[in-house]
Design brief:
0% strand; mainly alpha
Length: 191
């Protein structure tokens, strides 16, 4: 008797589902990271070294193309495409992380400088550890976006396809015959 109630509960429990994650695309990075105009303004305002976006993008693309060519016949077309998909994904993920970090710190900085959100403002407060200023964080995010764009462009040039973030294939729903076989097997295990 106890087995039946346990078996019934097991059958009625909801199936496991994976949480839906937002795909990290280059377009998302471009929306979050600083744009060329902001980077130019930060360089001018704070006297920082400018980011040579085009050189970073081109050098990254050339590096990936050179590495792909070096494989020669060691990788077939599919293996090379999968490898390059992962490489481009790593560059885009890194740029996304930097853009997210920059955006979070900028939001916190705006809250700290607002009289409405912070009664104890301290105008002489240093930047976060490891960064001299939020302006440098913006330029780092901008530079990593350039590298991501180079990786995505190299992927498209080498494979002839636009880069898309990896999406795990959706598991097919169990067919009626598979469900039936599972019920039969469960019945034999009980005996």
């Amino acid at each position: 008797m106890t087995r039946k109630s346990t078996q019934t509960n097991a059958k009625t429990s909801p199936p496991r589902t994976r949480p839906v994650r937002q795909s990290i695309t280059f377009e998302l990075v471009a929306r979050l990271a600083p744009h060329q105009g902001l980077a130019d303004n930060l360089v001018r305002t704070f006297g920082l070294e400018p980011v040579d976006y085009d050189s970073i993008r081109d050098a990254t693309g050339e590096h990936i193309a050179h590495a792909a060519k070096a494989f020669g016949t060691a990788l077939n077309e599919t293996a090379l495409r999968i490898h390059l998909q992962r490489i481009a994904g790593a560059f885009v993920g890194s740029a996304f992380g930097a853009a997210q970090f920059y955006g979070t710190k900028m939001s916190a900085a705006k809250d700290l400088t607002s009289k409405l959100f912070n009664d104890e403002r301290d105008e002489d407060r240093d930047g976060p550890s490891g960064f001299e200023s939020k302006a440098e964080m913006a330029l780092q995010s901008f530079a990593l976006m350039a590298a991501a764009e180079g990786a995505v462009s190299a992927y498209a040039e080498i494979t002839g396809e636009d880069w898309k973030p990896y999406a795990a294939p959706v598991a097919p729903a169990a067919s009626v015959s598979r469900k039936s076989a599972a019920v039969e097997m469960a019945a034999f295990e009980m005996a």
